[in-house]
Amino acid sequence: MATLLHVDSAISPTASASRDVTAAFVKAWTEAHPEGRVIHRDLAAHPVPHLDHFAVSAGFADPSEHTEEQRAAAAFRDELATELESADAVLIGAPMYNFTIPSTLKAWLDQVIIVGRTGGEAGTVAGRPFTVVASRGGSYAAGTPRESFEFVQNYLEKVVTGMLGAEIDFIVPELTLAPVNPALSELIPLFESSRTKALEEADEKARALAARLTEAATAA
């Protein structure tokens, strides 16, 4: 039985492009792998605290000498890391806010990346497949005027592969502001095409990943 960790970070619980696509992914995953398990962590509804001095210093101190604050911070990081380690695959909704990921998602990453445990090529989540739904209001694709402003895919690719030693795959719904911004109304057809493609990719990638994990479990 494979486990999918589903992390959403879009601020809005509704009217969210990234949530629409992650929901489609989970639906397809569940249909293809009904005996599987899905853990949903909503970082907007339940944000995790940013990494602080107590959490960092606890990692460099003997646990027997931890203060009450260090024990609490270390226990919380352990809870999040254990949740990540329990997943066979990870799905992340990562909308672009001010050219990069939401601060809540950054906080989660800072908490779960633990050097000597989850962090590194030999870490406990090395090789784990991550699928990221990187939605954005405009387009930052190669060749567009704002290509150099893209700090969602660029950042997450480095963090997931470089720090966690995991795999990463992206689904990118673009031009999500077109239906609500009159100045972008002429781009609505492109938005609709991008949305359709993203939903189709979510379905296909979820089913392929479920099949891959089922095959791996059977072979083991």
UniProtKB/TrEMBL annotation:
FMN binds at S16, A17, S18, M96, Y97, N98, F99, S135, R136, G137, G138. It catalyses: 2 a quinone + NADH + H(+) = 2 a 1,4-benzosemiquinone + NAD(+); N,N-dimethyl-1,4-phenylenediamine + anthranilate + 2 NAD(+) = 2-(4-dimethylaminophenyl)diazenylbenzoate + 2 NADH + 2 H(+). Keywords: Flavoprotein, FMN, NAD, Oxidoreductase. It is an enzyme of class 1 (oxidoreductase). InterPro entries: Flavodoxin_fold (IPR003680), Flavoprotein-like_sf (IPR029039), FMN-dep_NADH:Q_OxRdtase_AzoR1 (IPR050104), NADH:quinone_OxRdtase_FMN_depd (IPR023048). The keyword Oxidoreductase applies. Residues 3-166 form the Flavodoxin-like fold domain. Its EC number is 1.6.5.-, 1.7.1.17. Binds 1 FMN per subunit. SUPFAM superfamilies: Flavoproteins. Belongs to the azoreductase type 1 family. Homodimer. Quinone reductase that provides resistance to thiol-specific stress caused by electrophilic quinones. Also exhibits azoreductase activity. Catalyzes the reductive cleavage of the azo bond in aromatic azo compounds to the corresponding amines. This is FMN dependent NADH:quinone oxidoreductase. The gene is azoR.
